[in-house]
């Protein structure tokens, strides 16, 4: 799956990368999940303290903090010449 990026909400300058992957549970079924990474310079670090609500098929989602459930980023579908972005 392609990676998707979005800017932080408000005054934040956080960059997000959201990747979707399929984890095979059996030959006939798959479990889809998404991973969120925070752009720390040249490194993308997993963000375990954030959760996502949204639709991968519609390419839109909101990222919340796990503790306060405060929205920190909202990303929507956007197309680029070199990559597909939310």
Automatic annotation (TrEMBL):
Record Gene3D superfamilies: LURP1-related
InterPro entries: LOR, LOR_sf, Tubby-like_C
Stretch forming the signal peptide: none
Pfam families reported for this sequence: LOR
Stated family: Belongs to the LOR family.
Name the UniProt record assigns to this protein: Uncharacterized protein
